[in-house]
Amino acid sequence: MIPWCALLILLNAPGAAQPVADSRNGAELGRLIAEAVERNAEIAEARAIAEAARQRVRPASALPDPMLSLGYENDGAQPSLGRQDMTRLQFMAQQALPFPGKQALAGRIAATEAGEVETRTARARLGVEAAVRRAYADILLARVYLGV
After folding, report:
1. Mutual orientation of helices 41-55 and 102-146 as an angle, nearest 10°?
2. What is the model's pTM?
3. What average pLDDT score do residues 12-40 get?
4. What is the DSSP string of 3-62?
């Protein structure tokens, strides 16, 4: 078996058969890359995670949900609103108001995290594309050896 370094030297020697980089090879490579990117589970997972991160940006800078409560207290033995002195019915509405600037900061943090996740998607795509290109280079090298 010839070491790969020696193989490169032999292939680059004058008169050695070189794989032809024609438009057919480029179109075939592009099709293979597109198919691999479309079917790759890691990329699909990264896209789903990125979409979830994008969906968290807007709620992160929103006010918390308001709270409504209803209370009933009866001092007597039977339900009797208004007959006993310590019987009461209570309605309450609450809204948390964060310190100024906290909502905007939370939104910026969520947007930054979403951008970070987007880079993971791009990284996964580039990894798949590089793997397909390496495999295609091996195919072209095999074609040269076989004389196809």
Report:
1. 170
2. 0.59
3. 73
4. -HHHHHHHHTSTT-------HHHHHHHHHHHHHHHHH-HHHHHHHHHHHHHHHTHHHHTS
